[in-house]
Predict the 3D structure of the following.
Amino acid sequence: MHNNNLPNISNCIVAVIGLGYVGLPLSLAIAKNKNCLRSDKKLNRRVIGYDLNSQRIRELKEGFDKNIVFKKKELIDLKFIEYTNDLEDLKNVDIFIVTVPTPIDKKKEPDLSLIKKASFEIGKIINSDNTKKDNQIIIFESTFYPGITEEICIPIIEKTSKKKFNSSVLKNTFYCGYSPERINPGDQNNTIDNIVKVTSGSNPEVAIWIDNFYGSFIKAGTHKVKSIKVAEAAKIIENTQRDINIALVNELAIFFKKLGIDTNEVLDAAATKWNFHKYRPGLVGGHCIGVDPYYLTYKANQIGFKASLISSGRKINDFMHEYLFLEIISQISKRKIEYEVEKVLIFGVTYKENCSDLRNSQMLFLIENLKKENMEITIVDPNVNKDLLYSEIGIKANNEIPENKKYTLIIFALNNKNFYSISEKVFAEISTPGTIIFDLVNRFFGDNIFHL
Ligand SMILES: NC(=O)c1ccc[n+]([C@@H]2O[C@H](COP(=O)([O-])OP(=O)(O)OC[C@H]3O[C@@H](n4cnc5c(N)ncnc54)[C@H](O)[C@@H]3O)[C@@H](O)[C@H]2O)c1
């Protein structure tokens, strides 16, 4: 049966739930586009950005993005977008796009509390006691293991909305979809506009609707898949593949160090073959690569499948900050000069370059270990949220290298744009005769410079 009751694709009201690294750029991209990329239709959509964090909403209304992705002008100038933390404002919404966090808990298992809460709230909003609207579509973009949309979110929404999911009578119903977010914060080339969007829907018609919706504003186009579970799995394996590839070179780095072989030289040599994949050893942190594989292994365990390769990759990458610590201590112990207090300067503490995100940054674990050795730690990181860093480790970061100070240990952790001017000459100015440098990004080479 053809469903004429689906929302009007060019005039609908869209709510983005959760305005973080994913939700804010997405809501701005929808609001910005006024001409459909798939037809000659004008787009007259209203976009409502909802976040339960009232401070975030206050700041966005004032044009401040704490994630330092958008400038004031970009936030203030946009028409057709409203920011709110009042659920009542979402009564007339046709399309809900959910971009709330999906972290792991202390046991490294999926913490679904936020996604469950968002589903519960959406159910209440679309309940016909609350709104005259019907046939709403709820699209999840948060990273899920295959099954979260259908096995966890939809039952919650059905229960609270008292509507039938995907009803064939096309009344008192709602539909769902899953379209994973693949943005890369801090990367100005791979933005929401030029990454192909994988789409899926809860029935073929809804899948086409969702595909056309994203296709109307994403220049790179879309890739529609047959089921919600396929779309969920596609996203989570992207990050899992990266995690395993990095784990492999990390394991090789540990192994080759024992053999006295320079891992970077080995990788350069191997990379001369056309099909060798170029990965370097490094610390894996953040909200995605270091987290998503745990979602997959959790699901595997649930069905009695042992995903041993994925688990091993996680174990190796989670160990790397400790390995780095042991390497630092080992180099210090080999040094001829002894210092009463190790003065450490760290360039970059966020989980990756050009980004303010501190979540699961392995540098924080390393710093905790260095502090236990009574080292005196100075941090230079212009991107990080200084208050948040202070609350996590009790150290305030500097925007610049403090003047007239010398350091006995330098850790160059991130190749941030702001650090492009750092050179060997700069290192020489802030070094003592026995200074050891750990360069985690392979930019500097020479005596007393070590790599992972
Ligand atoms: N950050 C990335 O690089 C990235 C990339 C691709 C996918 N993802 C995925 O996207 C999702 C969101 O990640 P993020 O980095 O944007 O998170 P984030 O922490 O930056 O932002 C999430 C926002 O959601 C809000 N929120 C939490 N629960 C809510 C609720 N129930 N209702 C309304 N708002 C709520 C928070 O206050 C926060 O502002 C995660 O599943 C993540 O795995 C993230």
Remarks:
- The mean pLDDT is 95.
- The chain has two domains: 13-226, 250-450.
- The first strand starts at residue 13 and ends at 17.
